[in-house]
Amino acid sequence: MSGGGTFTDVDREKQRVRERVWDAMDAGRATHDATAHGRIPNFVGSAEAAAGLGEVAVWKQARVIKAVPDKAQLPVRALALTEGKTVFMAVPGLADPEPFYLLDASALTVPPAEAASSRVAAGVAPKVGVAALRPVDMVVLGSVAVNRAGVRIGKGAGYSDLEFALLAEAGLIGDHTTVITTVHRLQVLDEELPATTHDVGVDMIVTPEEVITCPSPHRPAGVMWDHLDARKIASIPVLAARAPGN
Prior knowledge:
Helix content: 25-40%
Largest sheet: 8 strands, mixed
Number of helices: 9
Shape: globular
Order of helices and strands: HHHEHEEHHEEEEHEEEEHH
């Protein structure tokens, strides 16, 4: 939702796309949950998509991964930890002053596949703030829909875009950073998708069947405060601390 408050025409267009994709995934039995609706779909084939990503050169070169906590991307997080990479994963809702879990492969007290679970990570991984993060080689996003130009639609809360903006503003995301999403083929649409200037585009889409490289996706350079309402800012401590006027 744009600004965390009032719906805009773009928000309505995005929601129509979400509903269409969720319906298609339910009809195709393409999710592990009872329904795809209302979430980043935990898609069938997520492990195969992660394995495909693992064969890509930019993945092999990456040492620091910023990943979403969604179930669909759990195999990617597990692969990263198994290969000795460092994973930063957002605290749900960015609801803590230190809004990232630090999963250091060399310091895990449980197996990588367990540590990669957001539920387990909350119990075993330290929380850190933006200042404690390292430059990010790859950002792993979940999606509801994405097109081959790299325009992505999430589930509507906007947290992935905010996380990206915070790290970009801190100089931790730059031209060296690859942004990817893993999805089911039903989530890849051959059409234009609605987007705003604060939406993060992806460089690469990985499905269980293919790797798609996207040309020149959009990247915001930082937090767009005029796109956020006071309630959204107040609900996220790291934003509240940085808000103009503070």
